[in-house]
Structure formats: C-alpha cells, structure tokens
Please model this.
Amino acid sequence: MILEMDNCQLPEIVSERVPDGFRRQLKMKAAVLIPVILVSTRKFAGLNTLGSLLLLLSFAFLLGPKSYLTHMASPQRRLVTVSYLSALFATLYSSLWLKSTIFTLIAAIFQGFTLVWYVLSYVPGGERGLFFMTSLFTSFLRRSTTSTVLPI
Model:
C-alpha cells in the first residue's frame, strides 16, 4: 500500500519504520555522546558551538547575508538574536580561552535554553507558548502547599 504526502509517494512499510529507526538512532547517539560530554565537556561545547555557528552561516548563505542579518536585527527578533549570539560567544570564550569546565558547562546550558528560544521564535505562537510554560513552571515552584492544584 502506498501513502501520498505532498506529491511524494512512500511505501507504507517505510513510513511505519522510520520513527522507530530514528528513535534508535537518537538513543545510540546519546549513548555515545554522554561519555564525551562527561569526560571532555570543553571540547564538546566548543565543537557544538562551532556547529551552531556553521548552521547560522548556512542560513545566511541560503537567504543571503544581508537579508538574513536584517531579519535577525529586526525589532521583534533582536532580543532572541542577541541572547543566542551572546550564549554562543560565552560558550566559545569559556571553552577555548578560559578553559574552565564549570563556566563552559554553565554557558552550554544557557546556550541550550537560548537555542530552544531561538528555534521557537520561528514557530507561530512558539515564543508566547515558551513564556507561558516558563511562567507556569515558576509559579508551580513558588506556590505554597495551601494553594489549588490547578494553575488557574
């Protein structure tokens, strides 16, 4: 049997097995990369940050450098762009020049949060949903035991 998806035909057997293979691949990568993260945090953070910079440069190549820079510097994207680029710089600085594992780990965690924010800022309603979930999480942490169960 064949599934039709936007002028693309895939056998049903392939479309059913792709998610399982993708999950197995992610688990294998995680199993391989967790020791790397634990043993050489600075090297992993530095290479991951360089990969993120190359990803940004590839978007600039595809969209054109001038139009991509003007898009990143637009008023609605300025805060997320500055925070993401500063996280990239902080991770590179702490891993390559300071050579401090603790600062690199802190900067890499900050980079992860800003990467999620940067990606969700492209999804319609994603940034608003992220702020809602953040406020919901912080209110959950702050509430006392006498408050209601549901955040209303």
Helices lie at 12-39, 41-63, 65-72, 78-98, 101-120, 126-142. The chain has a mean pLDDT of 77.
